[in-house]
């Protein structure tokens, strides 16, 4: 019996990348994303928005780059507040974020904070900055999409 051995060589290229919390990301393949001009200081850029995906009893606030305080949420990137204003939950901290970049260049910010996970998908847009809230799609898992020219590679 005769055996033939084939060797296949794989080359794995690791792209140089660096990030500054949830503000800036630099990738050796696609370029850079800078959300600094989207976030506001001391107040959320997107405040008390309802969910457009899963109808629920909450409003959501989000701010990239700079922490804010709202209701009982302190120094956060994201906050969930009941429409009555009786309860609030911190969804995200700027110190608990990681960047996710697909091979095709789609980008998400993933915040893992106090047992809650918030995913903010970045979508390149030439319109005014907009945040679409999909709400709590699974227990303590939340999804939003940020539309901005600053979400474009090399956009800001």
UniProtKB/TrEMBL annotation:
This is MRH domain-containing protein. Its main location: membrane. Residues 1-19 form the signal peptide. PROSITE patterns: MRH. It comes from Didymodactylos carnosus. Coiled coil: none annotated. The keyword Disulfide bond applies. One of its GO terms (cellular component) is trans-Golgi network. Keywords: Disulfide bond, Membrane, Signal, Transmembrane, Transmembrane helix, Transport. It is found in: Endomembrane system. Residues 21-154 form the MRH domain. Transmembrane segments: none annotated. SUPFAM superfamilies: Mannose 6-phosphate receptor domain (SSF50911). The keyword Transmembrane applies.
């Amino acid at each position: 019996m005769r055996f033939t051995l084939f060797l296949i060589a794989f080359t794995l290229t690791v792209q140089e990348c660096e990030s500054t919390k949830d503000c800036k990301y630099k990738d050796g393949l696609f370029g850079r994303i800078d959300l600094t001009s989207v976030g506001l200081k001391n107040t959320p850029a997107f405040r008390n928005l309802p969910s457009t995906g899963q109808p629920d009893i909450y409003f959501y606030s989000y701010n990239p780059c700079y922490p804010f305080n709202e209701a009982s949420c302190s120094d956060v990137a994201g906050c969930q507040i009941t429409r009555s204003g009786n309860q609030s939950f911190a969804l995200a901290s700027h110190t608990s974020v990681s960047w996710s970049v697909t091979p095709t260049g789609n980008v998400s910010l993933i915040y893992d904070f106090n047992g809650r996970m918030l995913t903010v998908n970045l979508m390149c847009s030439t319109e005014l900055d907009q945040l679409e809230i999909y709400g709590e799609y699974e227990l303590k898992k939340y999804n939003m999409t940020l539309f901005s020219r600053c979400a474009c590679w090399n956009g800001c």
